[in-house]
Here is the input.
Amino acid sequence: MNTNINKLIRILIPYTFVVLFAYILSTVAYVYLPKSGVNYIEKSSTNLEYRQYNGFYSQVRVVKKEPVKKRKKQNIQTLSNYVLKGIYSTTSNGGWIIVENKRTKQSSFISQDETLDGYLLVKLYKKYVVFEKNSKEYKLDMQQKNENIKYEVTRKVDNTNENILVDNDTVKVKRDYLNSYVKDIDKVWNNIAINEIRQNGKIDGFKVENVNKNSVFGKLGLKKGDIIKSINNNVLGSYADAFKVYNNINNTKYLSIEILRDNEIMELNYEID
Amino acid sequence: MKMIFKLFIYLIVFLMSLLILAPKELAYNFAEKELAKKQIIISDETRDERVFGLDIKDLKLYFEGIEVANTSKTSITTFLVYTKLKVKDVNLLDSFKSMIPSPIMDIELKHSVLEFDKVDIKASGLFGKVEGKADLLNRKVLLELFPSKVMKSSYSRLLRNFRLKDGRYTYEYKY
Here is the structure.
């Protein structure tokens, strides 16, 4: 009997060591492996935020607020000798304007922080610019055209009322019309072709390779060659960013699309009705 | 010969012990953290450790901050020489449903040492059936699709990504 037990122990001892070795390895793994996993935490910043709504073809991006300089300010006055013909911006947040002297009819390009007859161009807005001279600020408004653009495009296709109302700077799109695209992704890709633009390996916007002029995209002002940089102030730096916009479109009342067209940053602003 | 047989038995006992004693849930934590580096997050799941594997229930899959899909059950079974990953009921996010037919009923990945450089892939769902292999050495995935009627009629755009030859839909992807 004793002999049998001893024999069994002799057989089992090597196996005990093998199991012990496995146990030690598992313990080492236990010490080094992470004790908790990863959980998704929704960031509040992922929600679409709406910056502002300032009309359809705004030709300049909103210049970032500069730190307030300590200076004695006086009331903003108007530069009466000049007519502001155009405001342009660059990707680096800089910008320049075209002004025309009313008397000489001579036009000049003025970059931000350049001077015009001693007036320093300090701020560029969508519809006006601000010059500074002797600690006074001078406002110059964009030349207003006497055109009153107002038209409505209505068409009924497959029970969908394709309606776009253009009233000067305001463009209203019917939600049903937009939803007909949101619900049918094939309809989107049949009417617009978009490709990513990469810079240093990172996505830096989406280029419109082709667009059907009769589609909602064409009617909303997108053109071939446009590079969509941001939507509602959310920079499109990945497909996920673009997808977030697509997912939230039903909760969005306004759309502000920042595009790069012919090296100019433009904003297309729409109201979803 | 007897010695070799003995060593083989020791090896089997060692591997089995290792598999039984291994902290599988912690290994899963490690895998989650590695995936998170690639912006893939598995969240809200419940885990259930088994002797030779791990069950993960009701997980939500996020990619770059977007919830892409959720699944009812995922089970990982491994005997080291043979590993199987089975995913049941994959429901894609509503926005994806217009692009890919959802739900996907089953996804099954199998790896065996007998064919160590390949991973068997099988999936079935509203789209039909997919069978294929991932070639680990050549970093290539070869899939064959057996499309359902729904897939043929409503998802022709997706179907166009497959190569149609002799009535067979194939797809090759290099990574």
